[in-house]
Amino acid sequence: MAQLPMYSAVVNSPQTELPSGINATQTTVPVVNASLLPPAPNLVTIGTDESAETILYTGISSNTLTGVTRAFQGQASDINHEGQARLQTYL
Fold first, then answer.
1. How large is the average pLDDT for residues 64-78?
2. In terms of C-beta density within 10 A (0-12 exposed, 13-18 middle, 19 or more buried), how is residue 29 classed?
């Protein structure tokens, strides 16, 4: 599969981190601080390099993104770098 282009984030785009790893099939994604992310439904990118994944979330419950569609743009993968996997929105 051809690599899709990644676009630079806008300065000061909201971001948070994963408190723990996630697998490639999860439909809920825990985050450190969901209040930093825009209201659902919305898109967020997990990671910052060629393995980054864009997900769609349709709800937020406490610090958990719900109704998550993995690999919204690209391919889903296990993400095991808790505290290092940055979630970032693109405004």
1. 83
2. buried
